[in-house]
Input
Amino acid sequence: MSEAQTLGLQELLRVSPVADEIARRFQAAGHRLALVGGSVRDALLGRLGNDLDFTTDARPQQVLKLVKGWADAVWDVGIAFGTVGARKDTPQGSFLIEITTYRSEAYDRTSRKPEVTYGDTIEQDLVRRDFTVNAMAVDLPGRGFVDPHHGLDDLEARVLRTPATPEESFSDDPLRMMRAARFAAQLDFDPAPEVVAAMTAMAERITIVSAERVQAELNKLLLAAHPVKGLRLLVDTGLAGHVLPELPALRLERDEHHRHKDVYEHSLTVLEQAVDLEQDGPDLTLRLAALLHDIGKPRTRRFESDGRVSFHHHEVVGAKMTRKRMRDLKYSKELTEDVSRLVELHLRFHGYGGGEWTDSAVRRYVADAGPLLERLHKLTRSDCTTRNRKKAATLSRTYDGLEQRIGELKAREELDAIRPALDGNQIMELLGLRPGPQVGKAYQHMLELRLEHGPMEHDEAVAALRACPVRCGSTAGTGRSSAPASRCSCGRSCCRTSAGPRRPSRPRSPGTSRAPCTGRAGRCTAAW
Output
């Protein structure tokens, strides 16, 4: 026996109580059942989990009858495509089972859904599967190995081939082209030359596949052990041009800090470095942000008079592009906003310089990142791809210093949940306001003071709150206000530079004529 066969036998022995038990039920009813596809492949690789795929000659309604009363849970959401799902709880754990009737399916040129027809033999079923390494089966309960397309040979050679011609396979389901890239990323396999050629020639066919299916396949690729390998295959075959066009668009751009690398190579390196920094398993949010963080560069590229290339505000443009692409791919609103926010913030650290930020600027960095702070740390560190070791070491030490300052501020202040010293109810009570926009603006003003000056004592906060409405034209205790002031009464321009906001004056005592400057760009939040 080969090493793969030995591993497979060991894995099958582990799951045999469940597999043999259900197989005997089918056998008693006059039907065949076989472990198939990814389950056999993973068993031969020594990585079989508790998700088991079976194929049978029984029709879906017959499968339902056979698993009811045996399984602990049954679902039929996939029955239109010939698949019945079940869960079986055992002392060895819970097994999730999918049983699919022998079938063949094909897309027409305009449909997004396959037309399903059922077959009568396992050989018919295996020839319609995506790759030979997934076209192997183990007949149960006798455990006969079925491998008509030499999948075991391809598994040991780590090659992806199709049971039928690649053109037939990809015409049946164009998503299989993305699946080839996903298996390259997951298993570190290489597609055969004829598979790559067919993917390249038929790349446009991916456009008939629904965005939801494309997204699911892309997620599996990104969460794999070797995502860059899969992404390169998508780009090189032209598939990325249809599902993620912002990625190949990076290949012709030059990074302003790393002229020896184009932005495409830089982005893939950032993704690899972000993966290396993960501590609790694959992080889809971080990986998407790393991949997409520079997609705004092509649209913002400018050739300067001194010969340099600039990409001013590419992080802002990139965040908008990220949001649009993720919406088109039907990602959840929460994930879309998180990834877009990381893209928008990924350059913020570069204004830190040698540590010139004030404590106020550090607080704003933490507040703006919010629950994404740890991911922003990883993304920022990953974004350093310079080959200049001295420069890389300097950047790393500088970011170490920023993280240390954040830790010190956290020890002194509640940075993880920055809130004003006064909440909305207290603000309404102190100023005699009713619920409405005035309260929100007052709350925002107190939040700005918290960010600018750190924690405030209650009496100090009350004094600052009472002082500003008088200067800004509201009448405390009445709930009425005159037109808001148009600029800060301190007379200084409010701005935020790349090194962080300027340090404003401390809040004055009640009754004085100056409002504290908040340092916000282009406005003073003291003007409610």
User: Anything to note?
Assistant: The chain is about 50% helix and 10% strand. Residues 470-528 have pLDDT under 50 and may be disordered. The first helix runs from residue 3 to 28.
